[in-house]
Amino acid sequence: MNITALILIGASTGGPGRIYSILSSLERHFGGTVIIAQHMSAPFIPSFVHQMQSITPLPIVAVTSPIKLERGEIYICSITSRLSQKEGEIWLEPMEEGNYPYNPQIDLLFSSASHLSPALKRLGVILTGIGDDGALGSLSLYESGGDCLFESEASSIVYGMPRRAKELVCNGNVGSIEEIIERIKEYGGLDVRMV
Question: Which of 107, 114, 133, 152 is catalytic?
């Protein structure tokens, strides 16, 4: 497995600006693998990906079909997607069927990460947003040994999703967007090793 650190980011209202801040801070040597589930209608995803690609040297992929994940790349879910492990490789697979309340659904993405090898470092980040998507997925990820990080009330544009996730994952960490950026950079640093 060439992936050492998997960073999952879930966001809704106010999320694009937060994601812009995160991705623009990542440098070419960043070694983490980032998956983003931003609540957004699928037709708007390509322009969102194009905008994000202009601010980072790292490759960004809009996920529209099953794809094997690589170290140092960023993946943006076009629709609800899940992670799986096949012969030591991590794949991200769009769910073509299903009536999901959000596009893409954060809970399903985060929950699927809980079934990956515990040797893989996994960080789930819930950013600003309305509702509670991502809370149950964060709990599942945490219970499987993953790390969780939630945007603080003072930092959030809408303190819905991070609040609910923190309620379920009492031991999850909380931070401002600046602190979240530093944690992500640390998590995907060159010195990251599998535990």
Answer: 133
